[in-house]
Amino acid sequence: MNLAKDALHVLQTVAPTIARATLGPFGGLAATAISAILGTPPADEAAASAALLNATPDQLLALKKAENDFQLQMKSLGISEDKLVYDDIANARARQVAVRDNTPAVLAYGITIGFFGTLGFMLWNGKPAVGGDALLVMLGSLGTAWAGVVSFYFGSSLGSAKKDTDLAAAAVK
After folding, report:
1. Residue 77 CB neighbour total at 10 angstroms
2. Domain residues for 39?
3. Labelling 29: which of 39, 98, 134, 170 has CA 20 to 30 A away?
4. Residues 63/15, Cβ–Cβ less than 8 Å
């Protein structure tokens, strides 16, 4: 069990904007808000992770309120939730241009070959009796990674996801 990963999953469920902000330039602000609610030192990630996994309903409610307050604060500063995601992608691309490291390209080719190679194997041969479930997990992971590669090189589908959310909200009305 990965404590930090499980805690991040809880945070993404309760307060997705704050969770996204923890990984970007507003990480300090987000960490301070989280630690104040959970009663942990801001710099102690392990304590915050443990506290988040054992959070009381009142603490989860306080996190949800902090999420709403954080969104309002970001709006008042002129920063949209989408901007946090786009800035993260732009920073990765800018790093690639500045450093001229070929590692992302090598990984992109490897992921693409691995994904389509595994998919082709499964289409022609079916799911093997031994190790077939592990192969399905690998195919799913490679598919997710390949989506990240496409997003990095060709742009994100965040606008499309937002459009779907807006249409669903309009349909409910």
Report:
1. 9
2. 3-76
3. 98
4. yes
DSSP-assigned letters across all residues of 141-168? HHHHHHHHHHHHHH--SHHHHHHHHHHH
8 A C-beta contact, residue 34 and residue 63: yes
Secondary structure tally for the chain: helices H, strands E: 9, 0
- Does residue 25 sit in the same domain as residue 101? no
Q: What tens digit of pLDDT does each residue of 138-162 get?
A: 888 999 889 888 877 776 555 555 5
State whether 118 and 168 are in the same domain.
yes
Report the predicted TM-score, pTM, of the whole model to 2 decimal places. Answer: 0.45
Q: Are residues 101 and 161 in the same domain?
A: yes
Sign of CA dihedral 28, 30, 31, 32: positive
**Cα distance from N-terminal residue to C-terminal residue, the chain:** 42
